[in-house]
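ligand=SAJ
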Amino acid sequence: DTVAVIGLGYIGLPTAAVLAQAGKTVIGVDIKQSNVDAINAGQVPFVEEGLETVVAGCVAQGKLSAQTETPEADAYIVSVPTPFKGDHDADLSYIEAAAKGIAPKLSGGELVVLESTSPPGATEFMADVILGIRPEFTKEPNLPNSLYFSHAPERVLPGRIMIEMVENDRIIGGLSQEAGELNRDLYASFCRGELLVTDARTAEMAKLTENAFRDVNIAFANELSIIAERQGIDVWELIELANHHPRVNILQPGPGVGGHCIAVDPWFIVSSDREYSNLIRTAREVNDSKPEIVLSKVLEKADKLKSPVVAALGIAFKANIDDLRESPSKDIAVALTDRLDHGTVLVVEPNIEELPQEFAGKSNVELAKLEDAVERADIVLLMVDHDPFKTFDREKLQEKVVIDTKGLWR
Ligand code: SAJ
């Protein structure tokens, strides 16, 4: 019962850990030697609540280890990045590289699961890469030379991964019925949620659909926020009132949509059918236009001041995390340092110790504490609904120009 997990990032490592915890012998594979060394020492190279305890325990028991070479195993789980290339197409080269590593190790009967978020057809692509190298095998089931290919997209929320990995329902899409069932049986070892078996293309599309659904709904809120402001209407009151209708449930507007899922996945639907994906593409464009709108508003206020000081509250991509990747609020803060004439930006981000490299070499920005930044600021720009901002004493904002993109201080 050996499982190899290829790619030990935010999804691969927790998956390896819960499989090892469930009694499997798990060998993790990562191209980065420093990650491999850390994991073999029972450490986790990133922050995720509850993960390190499980990793340390499983490594100590000899159930989990890491290496850079793909090993022989009974099942393989591919959890590698699928970034963009060209005009928002999915770059499948990491999947291809993983498949090339797996191919020489196969002897027949193995299950190969693709976990990476992928456009429709990616599981078939992975199978074709492997079968291209090993033409003696087939994806037809129940033969001595059968291989079993399946897609099991993850749906865990960063910060709650160790809980959601076990509790959430999973969609599982086999290239054959048998492949889906093998995948289901493997995941039943650690997953208490429902395991819903379908075909690979439907599973691929389901994952993209979930995140596109959220993106379209946030875009609706963001578009409303732009229109409402021009009409002199408080968008948060508007949404709250509309949501009293039993069949209306509008999400919250903000400075844009960040993270590496919701701002990315809808593009994979668009790139798979550019002709008929107008709504999904437009939603992406509406959400991506929001940072520039926030920025113009700040610059308009700043223009009236001689040497404006802007307190930028929050640069993470959402509340109460330290993740700055694909963060619209970080982009706004960086753009402010470039476009604010004779001004200073005071970044307040309670979840980090130092400014990220995007601010390197800039003399008009510093990382500041909340109280201090607000006191020194002419303009207070709230961009993330971190807990310490929620409880901030609003008396201290009275003399300030306040731009509240989250409606936290209404
Ligand atoms: N946001 C808004 N308004 C809202 C809700 C969110 O502006 O009403 C913004 C957030 O501030 C953030 C972005 O959207 O910038 C995304 O945040 P999120 O909490 O909605 O989602 P993620 O990106 O952390 O995780 C999502 C989840 N997908 C869904 O909820 C459908 C998670 O379950 C997925 O596993 C994850 O993407 C993924 O890996 O695909």
